[in-house]
Amino acid sequence: PSQSIRSRNWFRVDWNMAALKVDYRISDQLKLNLRNFGMAGGRASVGHLGRIDRADPGAERNLLKDNYRNFGNETRLLYNYEVLGQQSALLLGSRYYNGRTEREQGFGSDGSGADFTFTELTDCSRTNCDRSSFTFPSRNISVFGENKLSLTPELTITPGFRFEHIQTESDGTYENVNIDRAGNIFFRDTIDEQRSRTRNFVLFGLGLSYKPSPYFQAYGNFSQNYRAISFNDMRIINPNLEVDKQLKDEQGYTGDIGARGQMADWLTYDVSLFGISYQDKIGAILKRSDSTFQTFRFRTNIADALHYGVEAFAEVDLLKIGEMVGANPGLRDGQADNTQLSLYTNFSWLSATYTNSDEPGIEGNQVEYAPPVKFRTGLNLRKGSFSSSFQFSYISQHYSDATNAEKTLDAVHGVIPGYTVMDVSAAYEFEPLTVKLGINNLMDQRYFTRRSTGYPGPGIIPAQVRSGYLTLKAQF
């Protein structure tokens, strides 16, 4: 897992984010919240993106450079009022977002260093000859609202809506290059491409809450969902990935029903059943090229998909249980007032399958990156200034593409095996200092969580081996 056979691959990132938040109390019932945000950044990667089972040929490397300039504002107005003798609240808001991505893709040097300068390529015998330069402007204007209406002290209903205006554009050039069998360029043409798409739609949702006591609450929610495509994802040159030019937005519905609360002061819990319906879900399938007969990854609207399952969380105060059953009588005398020992567990079971697919071999398959079982449990101990924690995690086997491929030579597609991970940490406070140490991946497990088509792949992305850290914090 720690081996590297892509020693010429490099990555550079520059990320700057700013935010300005304003809260203004207009009256006791009316409040105004403003959130202004912006981001100026960029990233670049240079390296060899060929098949992972073949050595780096030492030729010119693939170079990708992005620049991002995004800004926006979200304004919320909260009005508290009384109806039927109960306190209710109305929230109205708007959001404006303006994004601009500039993307260049072409050829880097044939050296080994972190050189992010584009070079001209005249021989295509050893690498991909495509290059492109595009700008992706995008705008989003939305108006939203929800009303928390308390019908009785126990029953609350919350309807909501959201209007969306989304505009995405693509403007740039890419090269169409033809080469002979010897790799010599005999035709090169620069093609201009402009695309624009505007969508307007309204989403609705409804939430219900029934809380007969401070220790129990039943709840349910149902809402429409929507995932807009971005041209930023549609124009990329990658030998391992192609994108459908007719890619459409996703639509669907989300619902859940559950109960949460606490039992006395020793148990806290939250259990819910959920379902998600996708229409025209976007994903990747494997296809074979008619000209080169090579298998490649194709991103398109694969099929409809249905997700449903259960998620449960519980945390138990073990010392409180011991006090209740009399296993530790000393607790009643206050000997452990400053000691806490809790056990927590989070479990989810998920069924996620494709339905109504026009693509062969997809219907009935598992949705990619949707593990059927997730299980996490751990212990937290606090005694005075000392605290420690232990966590155990298990993720079941799942797939990285919609075809549910078990294994391929390029390592971009295939199974993600199930894995278990254990972490441990401890901290001690002695004002004004705090020292914390920990070990991640305690048992030094070898596993991975995803497969990449581009940087830093292609192939699996191994997780960190066993590692430790030591932190010293001073607060004055």
Feature tags:
mainly beta, 476 residues, globular
Polypeptide structure, described:
The chain is globular and about 85 Å long. With 476 residues, it is mainly β. The chain has one helix at 318-325; strands at residues 10-25, 30-47, 62-83, 86-107, 132-150, 155-179, 185-213, 216-227, 241-243, 250-263, 267-288, 295-317, 339-355, 373-383, 386-395, 398-399, 415-416, 419-430, 433-440, 448-452, 459-462, 467-474. The two termini are 42 Å apart. It contains one helix and 22 strands. Residues 330-335 have low confidence and may be disordered.
- The average pLDDT value, as a whole number, equals 87
Pattern of helices and strands: EEEEEEEEEEEEHEEEEEEEEEE
The percentage helix is under 10%
Tell me the fraction of residues in β-strands, as a range.
Answer: over 45%
How many extended strands?
22
Number of distinct helices:
1
Outline the biggest β-sheet.
Answer: 18 strands, mixed
Radius of gyration: 27 Å
Q: Which class of secondary structure composition applies to the elements?
A: mainly beta
Which runs of at least 5 residues are low in confidence (pLDDT < 50)?
A: 330-335
Estimate the global geometry from the Cα principal axes: globular
Distance between the termini: 42 Å
Write a compact overview of the structure shown.
The protein is built from one helix and 22 strands. The radius of gyration is 27 Å and the shape is globular.
Secondary structure elements and their pairing?
Blueprint: E1 10-25, E2 30-47, E3 62-83, E4 86-107, E5 132-150, E6 155-179, E7 185-213, E8 216-227, E9 241-243, E10 250-263, E11 267-288, E12 295-317, H1 318-325, E13 339-355, E14 373-383, E15 386-395, E16 398-399, E17 415-416, E18 419-430, E19 433-440, E20 448-452, E21 459-462, E22 467-474
Parallel strand pairs: 9-12
Antiparallel strand pairs: 1-2, 2-3, 3-4, 4-5, 5-6, 6-7, 7-8, 8-10, 10-11, 11-12, 12-13, 13-14, 14-15, 15-18, 16-17, 18-19, 19-22, 20-21
